[in-house]
Amino acid sequence: MEPEYQGLGRCTGCFWLAVAFDIVGLLVLLIGVFVNVFFYDLLIYAGAIVIFLSLIWWVFWYSGNIEVPPAELEDDVGLLKKDKGGLSGVVRRLSTRVSSSIRNSFRRNGGPSRAQRSATRQTVAPQGEQVAVSMATVTPHEDTPPATVSTEAASDVV
Fold this sequence. Notes:
It is flat, with a radius of gyration of 34 Å. Helix 1 runs antiparallel to helix 2 (40-64). The protein has six helices and no strands. It has a domain at 9-38. The protein is mainly alpha-helical. The protein has helices at 12-34, 40-64, 70-73, 86-109, 114-120, 151-155. It holds the Pfam family TMEM238.
């Protein structure tokens, strides 16, 4: 038998953290508004951010207190009673058989072995050659071919 919760419900820790964040955020925000300090804008923003972060605790508290009857949970958490007869039982058995045969065929004829996969992962070291690259801006109305790089200019590239 599940205990019956009164007042704040199950998640009292989340409730009190949400209230604390709200109070601290409101105090910091009001200090930034009404106290004459040179960093008032920092206090206003910090208070607003702390109040916004309290929403996380309010959501935790609210979602922790949602009660769902076990009849509605059957399908979601694996408590579903499997039918052995009828059309749904036939479909379930067929689905299980097809998925297991596909899974087993991948295991038998699947991808490369671990040794083959590790051999293909070896990286090729880059070679120390320099390549001269020619770049030019081409507009749609330009009919002239792009400029070529002479071999003397390519040898000057470091």
